[in-house]
């Protein structure tokens, strides 16, 4: 029996679907970077007061306790769309995609777990004796921002093989699921059981309609919003509601299988909104850190240093180390043409943490505090450093990647499926 391969090619159907997702996320990542850069420039200009006043504008019905600031609506409301799409992707990957095979799922799951544990340990080691509750931010460097990472890949124009791009996407999706669990368990300050129990009613009705393949937005959207509102009122972060809603959506195709399943339908509708609107708007309100005046103090804060070390060193060691352990215990080999330098570069790219890192940072330290500003600076510096190091490694291997990608596109028998996907590794 041939030894199993790490980063081996999956099915052509899954590769095609992932490629479509990656194209959309790459565009969203560019928009995210533009939004973050705009916020950074505006927050350090002479019009910085206008930026902060805009973020503090309150809208929404006070009777429902939803008179929230625009920045809070972006974090609690718009990011719910992001986590809904992530929840759909997790369910599809593990129930209908290539990762329903435990042997294929082991690597990205192990890498995601390793890529969360080691950065958290790095942060704790650096902030252990720091004052003022610095340890509350232990989860900040554990996140990987897939949109930002793919935007980096697009900007450096590297021909990363499909299997490695798929691995990066899957790792980030599992990372998002683990992050929402961390948010629910460790960053729920006050729990009100009443609204949380009531949220189960619209959630259940939504699930029943979804299982019956109901697609009428005028029925589903009010139920989803009611679930979100009740979870928000319970004290649990409202984005948890989005993941729960996503998990009720069926991933099996109805009837003879020609019609897309409901999860595919929702992804097609909501992924562009998530990548093109929700995440960039959140980034605009979250990335506006003021660099003038206090940057020296921020760089001297253990929180800032812990985040940078966690994202740059912790992610690299965690993802690479977990991959090595999977290889060690399964006796697997890297796919043909790949080396541990490729794993190292991809692990470094996993240190590009932005969207979820900023969200956890706001929950850990509160909006508008000095420590929140230090947290934002740490996320920005760590993400940029991780992106730069990954660029250096991956660009050095780009000529080799180009030859692999050329092979992936060859279809000698003109059946629409590249021959390399029809061969066993």
Automatic annotation (TrEMBL):
Main localization (coarse): membrane
GO molecular function per UniProt: sodium:proton antiporter activity
Swiss-Prot/TrEMBL keywords: Antiport, Cell membrane, Ion transport, Membrane, Sodium, Sodium transport, Transmembrane, Transmembrane helix, Transport
InterPro entries: Na/H_antiporter_dom_sf, NhaA
Ion transport in keyword set: yes
Annotated localization: Cell inner membrane; Cell membrane
Reactions this protein catalyses: Na(+)(in) + 2 H(+)(out) = Na(+)(out) + 2 H(+)(in)
Membrane disposition: Multi-pass membrane protein
Domain of life: Bacteria
One Gene Ontology term, aspect cellular component: plasma membrane
UniProt record, GO biological process: regulation of pH
Transmembrane residue ranges: 26-43, 63-85, 105-126, 138-156, 168-187, 193-210, 277-299, 305-326, 338-365, 377-394
Entries under PANTHER family matching the protein: NA(+)_H(+) ANTIPORTER NHAA, SODIUM ION/PROTON ANTIPORTER NHAA-RELATED
Family, per entry: Belongs to the NhaA Na(+)/H(+) (TC 2.A.33) antiporter family.
Purpose of the protein: Na(+)/H(+) antiporter that extrudes sodium in exchange for external protons.
Protein name in UniProt: Na(+)/H(+) antiporter NhaA
Organism taxonomic ancestry: Bacteria, Bacillati, Actinomycetota, Actinomycetes, Micromonosporales
């Amino acid at each position: 029996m041939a030894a199993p391969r790490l980063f081996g090619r999956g099915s052509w159907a899954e590769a095609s679907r992932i490629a479509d997702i990656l194209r959309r996320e790459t565009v969203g990542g560019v928009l995210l970077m533009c939004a973050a850069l705009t916020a950074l420039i505006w927050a350090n200009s002479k019009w910085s007061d206008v930026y902060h006043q805009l973020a503090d504008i309150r809208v929404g019905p006070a009777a429902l306790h939803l008179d929230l600031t625009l920045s809070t609506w972006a974090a609690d409301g718009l990011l719910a769309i992001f986590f809904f799409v992530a929840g759909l992707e997790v369910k599809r990957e593990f129930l209908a995609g290539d990762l329903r095979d435990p042997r294929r799922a082991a690597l990205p799951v192990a890498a995601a777990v390793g890529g969360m544990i080691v950065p958290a340990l790095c942060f704790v080691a650096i902030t252990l004796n720091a004052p003022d509750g610095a340890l509350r931010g232990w989860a900040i460097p554990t996140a990987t921002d897939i949109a930002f990472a793919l935007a980096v890949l697009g900007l450096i124009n590297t021909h990363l093989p499909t299997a490695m791009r798929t691995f990066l996407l899957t790792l980030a999706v599992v990372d998002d699921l683990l992050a929402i669990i961390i948010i629910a368990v460790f960053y729920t300050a006050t729990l009100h059981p009443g609204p949380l129990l009531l949220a189960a009613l619209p959630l259940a009705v939504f699930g029943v309609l979804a299982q019956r393949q109901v697609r009428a937005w005028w029925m589903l959207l009010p139920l989803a919003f009611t679930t979100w509102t009740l979870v928000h009122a319970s004290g649990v972060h409202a984005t948890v509601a989005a993941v729960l809603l996503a998990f009720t959506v069926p991933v099996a195709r109805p009837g003879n299988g020609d019609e897309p399943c409901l999860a595919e339908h929702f992804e097609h509708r909501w992924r562009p909104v998530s990548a093109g609107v929700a995440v960039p708007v959140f980034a605009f309100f979250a990335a506006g850190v003021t660099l003038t005046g206090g940057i020296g103090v921020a760089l001297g804060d253990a929180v800032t240093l812990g985040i940078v070390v966690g994202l740059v060193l912790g992610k690299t060691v965690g993802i690479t180390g977990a991959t090595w352990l999977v290889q060690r215990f399964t006796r697997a080999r890297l796919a043909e043409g790949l080396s541990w330098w490729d794993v190292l570069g991809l692990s470094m790219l996993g240190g590009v943490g932005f969207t979820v890192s900023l969200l956890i940072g706001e929950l850990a330290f509160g909006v508008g505090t000095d420590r929140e500003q230090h947290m934002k600076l740490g996320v920005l510096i760590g993400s940029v450093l991780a992106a730069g190091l990954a660029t250096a490694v991956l660009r050095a291997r780009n000529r080799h990647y180009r030859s692999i990608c050329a092979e992936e596109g060859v279809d000698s028998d003109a059946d629409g499926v590249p021959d390399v996907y029809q061969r066993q590794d």
